[in-house]
Automatic annotation (TrEMBL):
Keyword Kinase: no
Ranges of residues in domain FHA: 49-121
Any single GO CC term annotated in Swiss-Prot or TrEMBL for this entry: cytoplasm
Protein name, as recorded: TRAF-interacting protein with FHA domain-containing protein A
Subcellular location: Cytoplasm
Chief localisation class: cytoplasm
Keyword Cell wall biogenesis/degradation: no
Family: Belongs to the TIFA family.
PANTHER family in alphabetical order: TRAF-INTERACTING PROTEIN WITH FHA DOMAIN-CONTAINING PROTEIN A (PTHR31266:SF2), TRAF-INTERACTING PROTEIN WITH FHA DOMAIN-CONTAINING PROTEIN A FAMILY MEMBER (PTHR31266)
Pfam families per UniProt: FHA
Keywords: Cytoplasm, Immunity, Innate immunity
């Protein structure tokens, strides 16, 4: 047998890609504590915590408006399958966390979809799971977005609707306002 045949099979590693955006990232430098250069490996039983306190969090955001621990991500194996996933839990008592269209209050948790947008305050994080086979560890790979993720991905932004119910993005035809017509007049 050749050494190629005797070599152990290389297993792939589940990797969570996280792309960060904040409108003030240029002047406030809130991402200065994050390592965007290389993948970081974590043990499968570690909980990846994100927040302001570097002594408690694996991923620290330098912003006083962020909770000491904002949220956590837990790697797990899905029941009766060989698939792996992540569970996201909001650990902030003051700030709600939104995963796509699902709002999480304090201590609420859900499974992280394979591709989603996590929002809290002015922060937008695009999360994408790259599946792997390794059971003892997973990796994270951080990226920095230049433009807002919500606009870039063509996902609906949660813009307030004025009380008159008319959205400024849908201009009225020829400046006329809607009028009520009796069905018998048609």
């Amino acid at each position: 047998m050749s050494s190629f045949e005797e070599a152990e099979t290389e297993e792939t590693v589940t990797c969570l890609h996280l792309t960060f955006y904040h409108p003030g990232q240029g002047e406030k430098m809130m991402f200065r504590c994050l390592d965007f250069c290389q993948r970081q490996q974590l043990r499968a039983d570690d909980t990846a915590k994100f927040g302001r306190d570097p002594s408690l969090c694996s991923y620290s955001l330098a912003d006083t408006r962020v909770s000491r621990i904002q949220f956590s991500l837990q790697f797990y194996r899905k029941l009766h399958t060989s698939e792996y996933g992540f569970e996201i839990k909001n650990l902030s008592k003051k700030t709600k966390l939104t995963v796509d269209q699902t709002e999480l209050g304090y201590l609420n948790k859900i499974d992280l979809p394979w591709k989603c947008i996590i929002c809290f305050g002015d922060y937008q994080i695009l999360a994408e799971i790259q599946e792997g086979e390794a059971v003892d560890y997973f990796e994270t790979h951080l990226h920095l977005a230049e433009a807002p993720i919500l606009q870039e991905r063509c996902l609906p932004s949660l813009q307030p609707i004025p009380e008159n119910g008319i959205s400024p993005s849908f201009p009225l035809c020829q400046g006329k306002s809607p009028t009520e017509i009796d069905e018998n007049e048609l």
